[in-house]
Amino acid sequence: MRQGLFVVGAVDYIDHDPSSTTSRSSFHGTGISITQFPTANNLGVEIEPVTTVASQQIVLPPSYSIVPAVALNQSKAEVPPKTCSDVSSNLLEDATKKEMLWLKSSMELLSYLFNDYKPLTWASYHAHLQPPVTDPPSTISAMLPLFPDKADSPAMIKHAMDILKDVTSFLHPGQMPVMACDCPIFAKAKFIQWTWPATYGESELLVMFGGLHLEMGMWNMLGDYLASSGWTTALTDAGIATAGTADSFLKSSHLTRTRHAHQITCVALYKLQCQAFELLGDGVCFEQWKKEMITRSPTFQYWNTILSLEELVLVFVRTHREKKFSLYVEAVESIVGYFFAFDHYNYARWVSVHISDMSSLSASFRQEFQNNWVVSKTQHRFSSIPIDQAHEQHNAVVKGKGGIIGLTENPAALQRWLICGPELARCISEFESEIEHASYSSSQLHHEEGLTAQTSSSRSTLWWM
């Protein structure tokens, strides 16, 4: 970590659910990660490392390791009034038009012999339009020592807020702390803010939805709409996925595969619309024909709504990849109504609060925050990720290939892992970074801009159509 750089934090579960019937215990702890954003003009100030002797015992301070008890009465919380700025603009309309341009480009390229200069996939198309990366330093991130307490308990959430406030005050004095989390933690964190506004209020600390969990919620909502529609059967018959994998797309069990399936669906639906328009257009323009078909055919209206929703979610994903905060707020605001429509009441309720928080940021903080709200771990274009996704990647490194198998039944070993696990993961990450730096390539291409990814996507789409 370095001083003088913008700081954001993330709080989430770190779990171990034993699969063996002979296991006697599971683990549901809490992980806190810190991310900083150096720039070419501000690399931060290095902090002197702590030096110890071999015989010295290192003990975490009680202010960190002890989680104070908290009594949170959610029924008595008072929501403070706030003034939200108007976020309406043409950003979302322009972004949706770009998705249509991708669909049109994909239609033209499906019958071509692909090469690196003809991007077909969604990511390669938009990455191809991005300007060169001019601010090369990657973000700096690390995990703090873990906690055995459950992440969704009010005591643990309040303690995590205190830790993030102390870390931010030390590393970047004067900055408002930022905490990214998923829906259950976000809900209780907001009640804490409303219960103790003087210490944890919305002017003292920013709590935000994690983009990764929000995207998964969006695909889950769309999966509910697609249930019993024959979509999973079509994916299976086309050879895109097995029956079990296709069913998992309805709940976004594997986010990357789910997103890829919906991208293929977008292209296939647009192709079918174009074919129907050629047969039934009768001399009217495409948009006018779609409006007429929506009023005449419930089936057409249903699949057109699916296509529109998929485009909106892809726009939401693109806001993180392209670091467009204003478009992010607009995209979330356009989608939140569907959470109400499909009775996802937790997301409907708390995403609305999240929109209110993002729309009421002070001008000075928003100016700095909108440049530091996503994580860029590499110099490849169109590759920025949400804060909570970077946190999940840290969790995977800390747990290792075997997870924490065998540690949950040994309290002493578990305690050592809670403290040393993040530090060992940091050493491994630094070693890997040095290796990558030694073999650094100046290419900033996205990994889907190659021939293999485009050919594979082409084959899947053509099989379905």
Description:
It is a single chain. This protein is α/β, with parallel strands linked by helices and 465 residues long. The chain has two domains: 2-48 and 136-210 and 363-438; 91-133 and 213-348 and 452-464, no CATH class. 54% of the residues lie in helices and 8% in strands. It is built from 18 helices and seven strands. The chain has helices spanning 62-65, 91-109, 122-128, 154-171, 183-195, 197-200, 211-226, 231-237, 243-248, 255-280, 286-296, 298-321, 325-341, 345-359, 363-369, 387-399, 411-438, 451-464; strands at 2-3, 7-16, 27-36, 45-46, 140-143, 178-181, 206-209. It has a five-stranded mixed β-sheet, sandwiched between helices. Strands 1-4 form a two-stranded antiparallel ribbon. Helix 2 crosses helix 12, helix 11 packs across helix 12 (298-321) and helix 13 (325-341) packs antiparallel against helix 14 (345-359). The longest helix is centred in the C-terminal third of the chain and has 28 residues, at 411-438. It is globular and about 85 Å long.
